[in-house]
Design brief:
alpha/beta
């Protein structure tokens, strides 16, 4: 049976994430310790204790989600009942693509963490330079969302950038254009428009400076060509085939739309039968069910879900 591991991106964070896993599994706790040494501050404490306004910043949430997802993955890799659970393919939403490449063996833990830390800092700096926003439009197809953006732009930048699932497309642009899109959405037939808690116009050309800074960091990182575990590319729905391709894809991702629905449809078409969402929250589980309600997806986001998976896989004792 073909299996895919999915990893969430920014927005999945919640105060307390990873704490129960780290308390129950020493190897998960050790990964948080290692992360603290790499980033040079107490990232573990921010994950476990908050405060929320600090965890939710672009600079903090990205490394925090990466480490929490990696800790959950580490438990699955090392628990006797689930050591045989290996993906044929991995995918991650936006920042989650770094975790997907880590899970596939293309990027090591230290390089992955340094890169997502740099990514968050570069995106925050670009957002300070040119403030922007993002709005999730619920209930419209792509054509109608583009019509909404055309009216909302009024000469400013606003584009559809996250094609998450049928009826959910996120637009991104200047703050005033996002204000107009939020106001005009109902007129265009949307069920609702939800302003996202982000600092900038992510996945648009307003992130060009961030992409440049990130590309420099990517060239300095140790990135391996894809091995037997494939990773699907956010911005194309194809698979990575080279280390240079990974650098290009991760760079372009900052200024390009995320085609998550297309990525999931590709995996389903290629015969993936079982999906595991590994990381905080249940966002990707919900999106996949909207894309294909028959898809089999197991959410692995906390200690209780890990225990359920371990017990279901072989009844191994958990701490």
């Amino acid at each position: 049976m073909k299996t895919a591991f999915l990893f969430p991106g920014q927005g999945a964070q919640t105060v307390g994430m990873g704490a129960d896993i780290a308390q129950a599994f020493p190897n998960a706790a050790a990964l948080f310790e290692k992360a603290n040494e790499i980033v040079g501050f107490d990232l573990r404490k921010v994950c476990f204790e908050g405060p929320a306004d600090r965890l939710n910043t672009t600079t903090m949430s990205q490394p925090a989600i990466f480490v929490t997802s990696a800790a959950l993955l580490e438990v699955l890799r090392t628990s006797p009942a689930t050591t045989g659970l290996k993906p044929d393919v991995t995918a991650g939403l936006s920042m989650g693509e770094y975790t997907a490449l880590y899970a596939a063996g293309a990027i090591g833990f230290e390089d992955g963490l340094r890169l997502v830390k740099k990514r968050g800092e570069a995106m925050q700096a670009a957002a300070v330079r040119t403030p922007g926003g993002m709005v999730s439009i619920i209930g419209l197809d792509e054509d109608k969302v583009r019509q909404l953006c055309d009216e909302a732009s009024d000469g400013e930048l606003i584009d559809p950038v996250n094609f998450n699932c049928p009826g959910q497309i996120v637009v991104s642009g200047t703050r005033r254009a996002c204000d107009r899109a939020e106001r005009l959405a109902e007129k265009h037939g949307a069920m609702k428009a939800v302003r996202l808690e982000v600092a900038g116009a992510f996945h648009t050309r307003l992130m060009f400076n961030a992409a440049e800074a990130l590309q420099n960091a990517l060239w300095q990182a140790r990135i391996s060509p894809p091995g037997p575990i494939k990773t699907v590319v956010n911005i194309t729905g194809e698979y990575y085939v080279s280390a240079d391709g990974i650098i290009d894809g991760l760079t372009r991702q900052l200024v390009s739309p995320i085609l998550w629905q297309k990525c999931m449809e590709r995996l389903l078409a290629d015969g993936v039968e079982q999906f595991y969402e590994i990381g905080p929250g249940r966002v990707l589980t919900g999106l996949l069910k909207r894309i294909n309600r028959k898809a089999k997806v197991t959410n692995v986001s906390d200690l209780s879900s890990v225990k359920a998976l371990i017990e279901g896989a072989g009844g191994a004792r958990t701490p």
